[in-house]
Design goal:
Order of helices and strands: HHHHHHHHHHHHHHHHH
Number of helices: 17
Radius of gyration: 19 Å
Strand content: under 5%
Structural class: mainly alpha
CATH topology: Growth Hormone, Chain: A
Oligomer: single chain
CATH architecture: Up-down Bundle
CATH superfamily: MFS general substrate transporter like domains
Length: 390
Amino acid sequence: MISLLLTARALRAFADGFVAVLLPAYLLALGHGQLEVGILSTATLAGSALATLAVGRWGHRFALRRLLLGAALLMLATGLGFAALTALWPLLVVAFLGPLNPSGGDVSVFLPLEHSVLAGAAGAEARAGVFARYSFFGSLLGAVGALCAAVPDWLTDHGIERLLALRLMFVLYAAIGLAVWLLYLNLPKLPQHAEVTRSALGPSRGIVWKLAALFSVDSFAGGLVINALLALWLFQRFGLSLSEAGAFFFWTGLLSAGSQLVAPLLAKRIGLINTMVFTHIPASLCLIAAAFASSLEVALGLLLARSALSQMDVPARSAYVMSVVTPEERPAAASFTAVPRSLASAAGPTLAGALLAAGWMAAPLVACGVLKIAYDLALFGAFRRVKPRT
């Protein structure tokens, strides 16, 4: 079961990797502007948040396998919709309804569903390691996907019209959705507590809501610098080409992937909360410094350093949430901590797009870094003494 989910995560991350880089280039090729890139990114994140909220509120009434299959079909339909449509409003509808992911991490409805299954399939001692592998394969294949953002340039050099080449990548996205659906078909029958829970949240309700509130601050900050907007910043600030941006995000993804393998080892030595906080703050300082970099080389170096640290909190956070609630509460906890994060992050791209369109190029990066540092300090103060249950 775990290997099937890791494979599905890897395939989805590969698709997300090239879509996050190609999305701004595709919208610009269709005649849309910077603000439209931000608005559409907001629509994707808001739609994912509402879908995740629905899973948290009513998902315990349905088999997780059925929900995963439905999400995969939405991925298929989203890819075909983006390949076929041109006007902004139809694209906004498809982006809102589908699981398209313009960010560097997984913010789609797949996340709480797969987390719930993984938490039930892994024992307490192995859970951090399983989530680390889940994040590692996501980051690794996301990096490879970002590198494949250069494919439209290659196709254009070989005689294919650029807009068609970009559309073909969304057809590939749809094909990956079909492959994920086929993988989910092979999931075995899940344990009863993972398939259907008797209630949404119980004794851990207070902890979950407090974590959700803090995570929302972090996600709003992250929404200001999602990969699609960071790519747009690099296009506008330094004139990077699509191929160069794809190569950059490939290396950031590799660094993120490697760091997530280190995260569980670090967590064993200093704890989950300390791992989240003490790696996040230096990453945010690198982002702030990159906003004021005078050259492309300095900016890319700082952003690469950030990537080596900024995602180490992901497996630690997932393992911590799953460990401070009862097994019956895990699906709801995964959803209710993901929903505020998705809703908060949805507000960021439109604001960042407006700031970029107004010429305030450094503002999104600085605001992101400052808010993330504030989140880290608040998380450390509130939860450094709250220990996992199991």
